[in-house]
Amino acid sequence: MRTLLLLTLITIPFRFVIAAEDPVPPLVDSREKLVLFDFESDSDFTAWRHLELPKAPEPRPRIERTTENATSGNGSLKVTFDGGVWPTVISSKIPGDWSEWHTFQADVFASRPCVVGFCVMQEGSTREPGWDGGVSRWAKTQFLQPGRNTISANLHPNEWSALRTKLENGRVLGKVVSLEFFAYRPHPGESLFVDNIRVLKAKVPPAEVNSPKFQVLGTDLSVTGVQDLGKKLIEKWAMPEPQTVEQVESRFQAEYENLKSSHPHAILAILRDGEAGLDRTRPDKTFAGWQDAYWSSHGPDSLTVDRSTNFGLAATQEIFMRHRSPLMRVDLSSIPTGSKILAARLLVVRASDPAKEHTPLKPNMWVAEACRRPWSETEVDAYRYAADKYWKAIGGMSWEGDDPDFWPVYVAHGPSQPICCSWDFVEAIRFWTDGKHANHGFMLHGDSKDWFRAWFREAPILKNRPAVLVVYEPPR
What we know:
Low-confidence stretches: 1-29
Helix content: 10-25%
Mean pLDDT: 91
Strand order of the largest sheet: 13-12-22-19-24-17-15
Structural class: mainly beta
Number of strands: 26
Radius of gyration: 25 Å
Number of helices: 7
Strand content: 25-35%
Number of domains: 2
Distance between the termini: 57 Å
Shape: elongated
């Protein structure tokens, strides 16, 4: 209940960061800009207070007017937090009509990388979770870097994430009633400085988007995404045969026996949490090298509580598109670097029956996208991969530059099947055992043609847990 009520706090459209060393955009003419708060007067300071939600309380931040880190005039708002998940300060001293304004801007000074946001509530806005509540409020979240950051966001980015008079269901939203500033998991005693909160008539120019190209290992293909890959390989799709876990493993065992005729030193490993037999010197020792966690980075940007919820200990969760899928990692330390990988399969067991709209019985495509961050199973979410360690973009959707969140590489791909999904995982195991790539696991996601709820490593029945089957030949 606490998680649902916390969704009460916030929202998110898209971003522009101006770090401390970057030039600050020139101020527009006053006839084209309305300064909401520049904290040059006591009234600007006293207009802010802690947002109190009795059913979802957060530690009360301390609010001060200061001359530190001012960007317009001599004053700024200093907000000192006492921990919490989404502590928020709010002001109702704002105009009720924002219809002529298209851009929101504010300056925020931070001492470390962090996540903050602003939320605008209207008379008909709600703090409820889910799509209906999310589209009733406007918000902008941003990853900050140490120093001065200028937050700049479109107030009308699209039809479902905008300030507007009413919703599609006819519900009237009415006047603007409050502006809120919040931070994600601030440290106790940490201060953020806010100044020059303004709205502009000018529109934010759309950010340049460079679509990444993903290399598909084991092929000569380079694609723009899993949907593109699905289209390129649709003619190879065949109606899948339903297989149980036992059937998949039996066939893999037969493949292993066949490989031993030409590779007598080949070893079969079953990597599944709770499964015994991996260590031949300790036959009773069970494998405990799986990690899995799910997040949602689904829009609109107001779904901050959904995005900040960790599902690392859930026994089941959905597997769907890139913004609603799990991270998985399997410990491969038992396979010596440089081993010859002869065969491998990834097994994921369905915890729900196929749906009519999203089904493995029609052409579909799934990929395993290699992660570059050492994520924590009990801390990872759409904003961070571990405590105080933030993705470069919401959901880790960063593939470019010298330090992306994910490799622009699909280490495995293929369609799904009913009952037990099984994908060829040879290239993936080779990728992580070549001595060149740290094993931080992968995100398993699809092209939206299939959807299912899957069993994770916490499944009570051992054979329902995800597994990797490997046949390898150690270096000699």
